Amino acid sequence: MTEIDTYENSIYCHHAVMGEGQVVEHSHNKGQFLYTEGGVVFLKTPEKSYFLPARHYIWIPANVKHSIHPSNPEVVMRNLYFPKFDTDTVFFDKVNIYPVNDLLIELIMFTNRWNGNIFPEEEPKYSIAKAFKLILPEISQTELPLALPYPKHEKLMQIIAYLEENIAENISFKSLAEHFDISERTLARLFQKQLNMSYIQYFTILRMLTSLKLLLDDKLSVNEVALRVGYNSLPTFSNTFNKVIGVRPSEYVKNRNLLL
Prior knowledge:
The protein is an alpha+beta fold.
């Protein structure tokens, strides 16, 4: 990681197959663009756990502590690390995941020929790499909620673990409160205060993120995945997946064969 920050004004480029390893918690003085191929990458910050699937990228601002955990050894990470520019907007101040369009795919593949530091005097390479960063806010209009916050309340931690273990069950809010001997009002407050979302929002996102992993890593069909995460209606599952992920599961599977 020290190579990234060796030269303050350079843009650092790194493409690598993850293998069996993971990247332990660290931070750097440059903002990071991370795109992956070959499976889901789990990225953890002190506040949230992010799920980065194929055809998406994550922007990690400078000095944000994070660790990276690939779902399998074949995952390829494509990284570009950028210094701060005078033209930077608030877009670059927060961690977020965005879908990747065809233009960005082409630009990412173009950077495959680069490795290591790119210095300002290396033209036109540096200007091309800088333009890569500058174009991100323009083509990244849709933030996707592919992240779940960590609960710090002990009871809520137990509840989240229960939901993860019973993701195929249609657990009503009332039955969840009864199971954990807690009032519905108190439970609703816990979700809002600890996770900044409702129970329905949390459980829906948890199911969709689990769906991504099942589609990518386990290579299950859309029908099988829908049932695994508690949807008996395929149209309902497809509509929910599209709302959260930004593409229908059938399209995602179609792209999967091209991107993995």
